[in-house]
Design a protein that fits this description.
Length: 379
């Protein structure tokens, strides 16, 4: 039996490789855009930066001489006697398998957003890319997608076709399901009269919608204060924290109120606004028959036009203006109907009336004298 030469033994020591083989190779040199691996074959394996990752990368920052990498043979001979290997393709195959399993099992995945694309987000799952369309990112309209960059989000895969590079994720359905569960728990625990704390979501002309943890409650403008609220947007803004109580539950509709009974301004009103008390207030609004005076938030009193002055007043605006502070006497108090009547005239000294009468008499006498003088001259 003939002995093998050294060259023949060396030749036999090299493994035979084929395209698609998965091998382990040791990095023997590395540059910015290319690494050379000993893959146990006649030729070394060449790993370019483009076959390492889909994103531009300096190979010297991610691998070092002596590292062992599992790679896939792309070309046994690229025409120049080199064997081209890929790291990213093998990683992508593993990732695709992982994504297919997650799709079949309806698994909830959590992964970082690595890129903002036109119309959605690109999420990295162990080297595989999942596209989440803008319409499936949230259960509300999202104008600014940039805030998601580098953030980890949860989602499920609703479509998985790696061959066509079409792997679609859905975050919206998770949020909807979470909110439905939170709403169910909320309605199992809340009751009328209960105090709750929530966050203002939206403010409209007639009130504010408050998220109380699972459902929105409406805080109507009439329930925002014991006093008058002209414009809810001047009182509340989105993001404000509100502590209110549940006034009514009607199906899935929740009515909230800030008019806590212990803060009711009509408490002890009989003492504060007893007949004969002198009070101060601000003119809130006027009508032809009188002015309404705010004594304190939630307590208005009527100042009838006949009680504004001792002289005749045609209309309240002739003597008063909205926002003016006045002092008046309470001349009537009806706690049951929550009605209070005021009088400025009752505080005016009697001299005012006599002074008015004297002035009228003088004016009348002067007119008579003038008529008499005119008659005498005519004669």
């Amino acid at each position: 039996m003939s002995e093998l030469s050294f060259d023949e033994m060396l030749e036999q020591s090299f493994k035979t490789i084929h395209g698609g083989d998965v091998l382990e190779g040791e990095v023997i040199s590395v540059k910015e855009n290319q690494a050379v691996l000993n893959i146990g074959a006649k030729q070394d394996g060449i790993l370019t930066s483009s076959e390492y990752s889909n994103t531009p990368v300096d190979l010297t920052t991610v691998i070092s001489v002596g590292d062992t990498l599992t790679v896939k043979v792309v070309k046994v001979n690229d025409g120049e006697g080199q064997t081209i290997v890929s790291y990213k393709r093998l990683a992508a195959e593993k990732a695709n398998k992982r994504l297919e399993e997650a799709f079949e099992n309806k698994e909830v995945l959590k992964a970082p957003v690595v890129q903002i694309l036109k119309g959605g987000l690109s999420v990295d799952v162990e080297g595989g890319r999942v596209f989440i369309p803008a319409s499936l990112i949230s259960d509300t309209f999202e104008k600014d997608l940039d805030k998601y960059l580098n953030q980890e989000i949860e989602f499920v895969i609703t479509e998985c076709n790696p061959r066509k590079r079409r792997i679609i994720g859905d975050r919206k359905q998770l949020l909807v399901a979470q909110k439905e569960e939170a709403k169910k728990k909320l309605f199992e625990t809340i009751e009328v009269g209960q105090t709750v704390t929530g966050t203002v979501k939206n403010v409209v002309d007639f009130g504010a919608f408050v998220d109380i943890g699972g459902a929105d409650g409406l805080l109507h403008i009439s329930e925002m204060s014991w006093g008058r609220i002209g414009n809810p947007k001047k009182v509340f803004k989105a993001g404000d924290e509100v502590t209110a109580f549940i006034k009514e539950i009607n199906g899935e509709k929740i009515a909230l109120s800030l008019k806590f009974e212990d803060q009711n301004p009509w408490n002890n009103a009989e003492e504060k606004f007893a007949k004969g008390n002198v009070v101060k207030g601000t003119i809130a609004r006027m009508t032809d028959f009188g002015a309404f005076v705010e004594l304190e938030p939630g307590v208005d009193a009527l100042l009838h036009v006949s009680q504004i002055a001792k002289h005749h007043v045609e209309k309240p605006s002739d003597e008063l203006k909205v926002g003016e502070e006045i002092e008046a006497m309470i001349v009537d108090f009806n706690e049951e109907d929550k009605k209070i009547s005021l009088s400025i005239k009752a505080l005016l000294p009697d001299e005012e009336e006599s002074t008015e009468e004297t002035a009228d008499e003088v004016a009348e006498d002067e007119a008579v004298e003038a008529v008499e003088e005119t008659t005498e001259d005519a004669e």
